[in-house]
Design a protein that fits this description.
Blueprint (H helix, E strand, L loop, with lengths): L9 E5 L12 E6 L6 E7 L16 E13 L4 H12 L2 E3 L10 E5 L21 E2 L10 E5 L4 E5 L1 E2 L3 E3 L17 E3 L8 E6 L5 E17 L5 E8 L3 E2 L19 E5 L2 E2 L4 E2 L2 E2 L4 E11 L21 E11 L4 H7 L4 E8 L6 E13 L2 E2 L6 E8 L9 E6 L8
Antiparallel strand pairs: 1-2, 1-13, 3-4, 4-15, 5-6, 6-27, 7-11, 8-9, 8-12, 10-11, 13-14, 14-15, 14-16, 14-21, 17-20, 17-23, 18-19, 21-22, 22-26, 23-24, 24-26, 24-27, 25-26
Amino acid sequence: MATKRGFSGWRCLSKLEEAAYNGAAAIATTFRNAADPINLVAEIEDGTTLVGTAAEEANAQQVLAYHSEGPEDLPRLRPNEAALYLAFLWGNVSQSPVDEPASTYYTHTISPFPKTFTEGAQDGSGVALTTITVNDTGSFPSSGSIVVESSGNTWTYSGKTAVTFTGVNSCTDNIPDNTGVHRLQPDRDYLLPSFSVLDYIGAANKRQWDGCMMQRFELSGDRKGWVRASGRIIGSGTYDAPETARSAEISEVYLKMGDVTITIGGTFTGHTFSGGTNISANVRSFRYSCENQIPDELVYLPSGGKQMGRAERLQRRQSLQLAVEFDDGTEAAYVTSQTNLNLLISMTGATGSYGMKLIFPQFKFNTMPISGGTGVLLQTMDAGIQYHATYGSVMAQVINKQTGYLHA
């Protein structure tokens, strides 16, 4: 008897977000996914819960709404995969010039929306502006609009450089230097960027899903293991069986827990993290998770039909947990004194050229229950991630040879 073989484990993603929601973006990167494929989820309504209805009639059941949904499971994580998923999860990315830190390498800084702009060179006199300079335009599309929150005015622009919006349609708002620039916010603060996913279900069976968004993502690592990741992808439910060939798998190193260094209480300048205490030898494991809360009423709209629209989040939930060995009261004092801390988790690959840094500019520990009464004492340290006024709540710096994510 013939047997049917299951999921091949290959998954392909677009590196850039879709130009228009639910429109296919070019598939550009391939990696191995250990989870199940993405599937279509239908919301079916019938009459079985209505008293006195003929629930067994053929016309008493129908699909009212549908979407796509599937897990992501990466037992071994590479920098490119981390950059892709964090960019789609958080929605903001900027890119350094090539050759940093070595030939053909790029450094990508990824942080959540909304981004606070701290520098600018505005006219400040009310004269109509056709260019607006800010700290970083990386989170904005190549053309679009900016909103001045104080006035409520929206100004379109037709181009951008790394720090300047160009082709602005004569902005007449008074935006003094270093005063009101932080009021410029992307016009999609709460809208998640959408991307396309191509699943290889079998040797010849493939399915491309458009309108996909990252609802949840987690990074973690344990001693003697790989840095790993997991998450959940949701989408509009649109799919087809394209003829697209599988793109080449990116040749990067996998990140190992044995190469991870963890530093607490250092100095972070927005680009570099220095000083602090290296606690790597005491850490048994770490776990960071982030979830975009997306209520159904924000994606299924009147006149939208059965299909899910573009997801809009209400808020973002983040958590950070460290399991550490201890021999004194240092960790407990972090809780009782509610000490302001920061943390660097540095994941370095071969020769230091590939790698990733996960940075938390400000947090406080909430609980530290003790376990392991015999032998090594352990504390599971749960942190409340806070929003730093200058550097935000979390940041990732990824080093690899890939040229761009999202709008970069």
